[in-house]
Amino acid sequence: MGIKSGYLKIFFAAVIWGTIGVITRWSSLAPLELSFYRVLIAGIALFLILPRGQRLIILHTKHFLLIVLAGILFALDNLLFFYAIHLTSLSNAALPYNMQPIFMAIIAPLILKEKLKARYVVSFIFAVAGVGILVTPSLINISYGDIIGISFALVGALFLAVIALIAKRINIQAITFVYFKMIIAAICLLPFIKITSIITTNFTNSLVFILIIALVHTALAYILYYDGLKAVKIQHVVALTYFIPVVASLTGYFIFNEAITGYTVIGGLLIIVNGAIVAFNN
Fold first, then answer.
1. pLDDT tens-digit readout, 64-99
2. Quick one: which of 57, 81, 116, 126 is 20 to 30 A from 210 by CA?
3. Taking the C-alpha atoms of 126, 155, 79 and 101 in order, what is their torsion angle to the nearest 10 degrees?
4. Buried b vs exposed e over 96-114: b needs ≥16 C-beta within 10 Å?
């Protein structure tokens, strides 16, 4: 029952994340501001939910440095992903962003002491080929914004993979891990935020979208994801995250009329199918 519940949690988190690109564009906020408000509001919400003892557990755990690292990486990941959405289409941002499972499979031996299998290296090569096909239209049309956006998404995927493996390794509740990750990320981003811009016209008009991203796409989705990750093998669970680019591409097409080209289909399918093979071929 626990394993089935874990799969459902991962699935629902993936569907939620698939819609974040649409909400991000509707918010009309710059990537830096949106990243800060996202983690700050999510952190405050979790602070109100967590018991007092859980709020201070970071001071009594041997995993202090790993949790801090996760928060720093999440701050960087937020910036990279939101900039990617601003620079390129939702499909171009979401598909390479979901190479996270491939990165997880490759770096798992370093963090979880799992044996690196040769097929994971081969899978990584095929996944990179999928991204290459994905960026082909950008190269043809000399769209440097697309190339930079896809590059940002790839680096963000790498950071997310490291964070997920840290979450699986340390022995604290998912909600507590997400809370500390949000607070640390907010602290990292705070020096770059102008105090006078905290309450702006854009912020007021975008408040509903900010709350949705912070509470649903961040606090809720990451709690579901990390909780599910602890119950099921990584190679199986990560396959469900490939619903994210599917949902993102469909929402981009139906809401923003973004074209789904042959390159998008072929490159996306190569990434998704390859990820599914990695997940189920144990």
1. 899 999 999 999 999 999 999 888 877 777 777 777
2. 57
3. 50
4. bbbbbbbbbbbbbeebeee
